[in-house]
Amino acid sequence: MSTNFKSIETKLIHAGEPDPRKDGAVVLPIYQSAMFEYGGEKSYHDLKYIRLNNTPNHLALNEKLASLENAEACQVAASGMAAISTALLSVLKAGDHLLAQDCLYGGTYDLLTQDLPAFGIEFDLINGDDPASWEGLLRPNTKAIYMESMTNPLLQVANLTAAVDFARSHGLISLIDNTFPSPYNFSPIELGFDLSLHSCTKYLNGHSDIVAGAVLGAKDLVDSVTRKLNHLGGSLDPHACFLLHRGVKTLAVRMKQHNQSALQLARFLDDHSAVATVNYPGLVSHPNHETAAELFTGFSGMLSLELTGGLDAAEQCFQRLRLPVVAPSLGGVETLVTRPATTSHAGMSPAERRKAGISDGLIRVSVGIEAIDEIISDFKQALD
Question: Which residue of 126, 136, 159, 265 shows the fewest CB atoms closer than 10 Å?
Answer without folding.
Answer: 136
